[in-house]
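Case 432 in the screening queue. Each case pairs one protein sequence with one candidate compound; here the compound is flavin-adenine dinucleotide. For every case the pipeline is the same: read the inputs, emit a complex structure as tokens, and attach any notable structural observations.

Predict complex for case 432.
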Amino acid sequence: MDVGELDLLVVGAGAAGLGAAREAMSLGLSVRVLEARGRVGGRARTDLSLGHPMDLGATWLHAAQANPLVPLAEARGLALFDHDAVRSARVWLGDHWAGEAEAADYERAERDWGIAVRLAAARARAREGGRAPSLAEAAPRGGFWDATLTHWEGPVIAAAEASAIDLDDYLATLLSGTNLLPREGCGHLLEALAEGLPVTLGAPVSRIDWGGKRVRAEGDFGALEARAAVVTVSTGVLAGGGIAFSPALPAAVEEAAHDLPMGLLEKVGLPAAGADRLDTPAFGGMERRLEEGERAMTFVAWPFGRGHLEGFAGGSLAWELSRAGEAAMVEFAFSELRRMHGARADRALRREGAVVSAWGRDPWARGAYAAARPSRGGARRALSAPVGGGRLRLAGEACHPSLAGTLAGAWLSGAEAAREVAALRPAAGARA
Ligand SMILES: Cc1cc2nc3c(=O)[nH]c(=O)nc-3n(C[C@H](O)[C@H](O)[C@H](O)COP(=O)(O)OP(=O)(O)OC[C@H]3O[C@@H](n4cnc5c(N)ncnc54)[C@H](O)[C@@H]3O)c2cc1C
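Case 432 output:
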């Protein structure tokens, strides 16, 4: 692979890698992106096998007002849809759907749950030298809706059990603002943003040597050298030893990768069998009220009026189903839907043609996104510290202090890393 003298090597062509490459090029750096898979987008992938787009990974452009992908999508004429404007949700109470009064009670409980968690965080901060609690320790228990709310905020939103999430990190990474949906999919959006970038696909990096003046990346593709490297692989890949670093990463960075384990969120798309839409409007949400310790899938029906329903499994349930395989994921989705709709679910939806994500088994992801372990709230900062005088820098969703677990956080983290590399550029005429 002859690419001439390079300023920057980027490992990974997901949101962070693409953000890094675009920013570096706009600052005049020469760049090469090495991507293990045969496609760009990383944990954003749009599947078309249902006959229309379905995102298997990233789905919403969260925090739209602060999301750098929103103006980039708009500049390309890609349609963005305000999901919040049409959002509706029904909650199954075991023998009936929540009525108006019950739904209002759920909303009140949600506010109280949020207040209780913030109060617990404030109390923990006031206790000097005390161990920072997990989200589970801070979450209220025993109330009618508490288990449902803790399951929602843990496995469904953060992709991890509440007992495995640092409370301060949970609060620091809460998302606010509008949630937009790219009509053609988030994966499609990243493909569009990768156009014209110097990406080499099918080039897994197995070793990075940053001991010398230049950084060297090696793999079956051969070897490439550059003045600096930005590595955007997931903490799952990092902690699992997916890339050998020589010298080894500093202990604090290595530890940070382990302190940010991958949670798991898996998606399943079930095609409609006929005209029955289960009395649910386009984008209608469905969830169940849960008892303490219970786990469940949540659903979004018929996005954009399309003929499929999307199920989400998170946390320990997702890991179990991911290990059990695609058929188990589909069967679990049907068992959940039967609890809410009876045998009608079997008639309304098809198993054949179902689409199932597999982020847990994917060697280039090893999970969905990372949550800080309890008492390890500072891990995101430690993970993104410059290494080797700035020659090496990790970036990606896990590195962003507030938009972690999102495309926006990944993109911004990559762009920031590229700016740091540009700032280290030797003055004109100086030898690198
Ligand atoms: C089911 C699911 C739902 C989600 N929902 C949303 C959502 O609605 N909104 C949102 O904003 N975010 C969502 N996310 C999170 C979002 O997808 C991620 O935060 C984001 O895509 C991470 O981008 P990244 O660049 O940090 O990492 P990645 O996308 O993982 O990119 C890293 C890249 O590195 C490559 N790579 C790995 N190892 C090597 C190697 N050795 N050599 C070379 N390349 C390598 C990988 O193939 C990958 O392309 C979701 C994720 C999942 C799984």
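Case 432 observations:
- The CA atoms of residues 62 and 248 lie 35 Å apart.
- The chain has two domains: 8-43+183-260+370-423, 83-180+265-356.
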